[in-house]
Amino acid sequence: MKTTQQLYEAFAAAFPDIVSEPPPLIRASADSKVGQFKGHLNSVGFLAGYSCSWMTKLCYLMCYTERGQAGMDNAYLFRAWNTWALFAYLLKGDVDGLARNFSSLITHANKQYHNRLKPDHQIEIAKAERFISNAKRRYKKKIDQLKTEVGYGKHGRHHMEQWGPDIHLIEMERDKKINERVELIKTLQEKIYVQRALRAAGPMWRWMWSGDLVDATHAMAVRKASAMHPDTTAWIYTRSFHLLQFLEPVPRNLTVWLSEDEENTEIAQQYYKQFPWARRTTLTNEDDPTPSTGIICPENAGKFRTVIGACAKCKICSHGTKEEVHFINKKSKSTYRRPASETLLQITA
């Protein structure tokens, strides 16, 4: 277990230019899996390792936030500034200040959420359906009138050849306008589905999509900020089991998941018995058989066409609908992995 001071010293050694500047405010992230829509700033993250008090070499080397786009320089630097801002609160033991910073982020995420909610589009659909019905009658009348004017029924083939192209043009115009409204209705119906799913889920917030609870100040600020937004469903995964006590009393809108792997399974079980309100997540190797307990994360299992908004669609973790979830440790040779920090590897030894 690493103290706040040990983690800060490692961070300061790795980022001397950053800690020489005044600490900024912590900023939220728009994580593709967690966001309820594109650009939704409903999560917060810090640098893995430097903000993980119970980090092990295994979890650091396997951490997905060090891979792919999350491990690229811009994303990494963003989290580095967030980590400096976090340490500024933690070193002073400023629970209230940190909670206020977190609360402002949740408030903004919720504002985005409510701005995204639109009317149910039913009125627009009804208008489009009326247009289609009226268009069919209007164009039928127009075609019938043309046929009457040219004696379409009396003179047969001669006038069919003469005026048929005009009728065809009218029919093409009719079909074009009707098809436009049909496509509009389809689009609106899709929006209705999305809107209703958004309303059903309610506003959501993910704690530490990268990093973990550092100390008691951090845990108490998470609990306090969650309680300040009782209508927002929040969730957190943590390996910092020794800090669970500082999340009590756990707000009703916060779901806490113990993050387990082969290195900490036994101690996780002990804490699970001590804090039965927590739930369990386990890292499962890709070539392992299907777990006998719990379920595999639907996004990991490929149940969604895209990772965008996967957590918001699933809601197992956010709303705590299961007691145990397994995540697959996928072995990908093609995914970029940020070079491991020698400093972090030394303090995990």
UniProtKB/TrEMBL annotation:
Pfam families, alphabetized: GP88
Domain Gene product, residue spans: 194-318
Cross-referenced InterPro entries: Gp88
Protein name per Swiss-Prot or TrEMBL: Gene product 88 domain-containing protein
Originating species: Alteromonas australica
